[in-house]
Amino acid sequence: MHTGEQYHNFFLTSRRDVAVRSRFQRMAMELLPRGADVLDFGAGTGIDARTYAAHGHRTFVYEPSASMREYLLTYCREELEQRTIVAIDSLRDCKVPAVTANFAVLNHFADHAELFDELSCIVPRGGFVLASMLNPFYLGDARYGWWLANVFHLIRQGHYAIPSESRIHRFTPRVVARAAEPYFQLEQRVPGGFGIATQLYMFLLFRRT
């Protein structure tokens, strides 16, 4: 189990993850209306939140991990004091036009139906949820025994879990899209086409209907 500080330092020094985060942030901010509020769901140590706040978006942060939250309160201290970042204990503590969930936050859920039901209460029609999830089609994982052992489950069920301390789940986009209904519709998946086989993360954009 990583501490908040260890997680923070790793994600700021990993060239691959810095590039992935940059692409996600750019996509999120292109979608956000000027000056719009945003909820950073599973905010980690506040890396994304600080970026959103710096670009004029008041950012609500929800982070259930005590270790991550403790480091976030230090890293984002100035923004928290200025209320450009607002820490919340419940999703119902905000009403926002947009929700972001970066770096596999949604992969910690076995089922997303209840989550999307809750998000539908805070995101108005026309708003969106943008999630970065582990890509189950990434061929770079084919070298691992757990990937080969679960290909059948992926094809048949669209979902499997890897036995581990955190029990990370893998989902096809259609499974997550089904869980999001009837409140959200899957509008976009990045990358598209054959690029889905070469990227560890996929970005899923859900629009509130």
Question: How would you characterize this protein structure?
Answer:
With 209 residues, the chain is α/β, with parallel strands linked by helices. The chain has a single domain (4-136, 173-208), classed as Rossmann fold (3-Layer(aba) Sandwich), CATH 3.40.50. The protein is built from 8 helices and 9 strands. A 7-stranded mixed β-sheet has the order 3-2-1-4-5-9-8, with helices on both faces. A two-stranded antiparallel ribbon has the order 6-7. The longest helix has 17 residues, at 15-31. It is globular, with a radius of gyration of 17 Å. The N and C termini lie far apart (38 Å). The model has no long low-confidence stretch (mean pLDDT 95).
Highlighted features:
single chain, 209 residues, alpha/beta, Rossmann fold, 7-stranded mixed β-sheet, two-stranded antiparallel sheet, 8 helices, 38% helix, globular
In which order are the strands of the major sheet placed?
Answer: 3-2-1-4-5-9-8
Radius of gyration, CA atoms, in whole angstroms: 17 Å
The total domain count is: 1
CATH architecture field: 3-Layer(aba) Sandwich
Order of helices and strands: HHEHEHHEEHEHEEHEE
Protein name: Methyltransferase domain-containing protein
Pfam family, one: Methyltransf_23
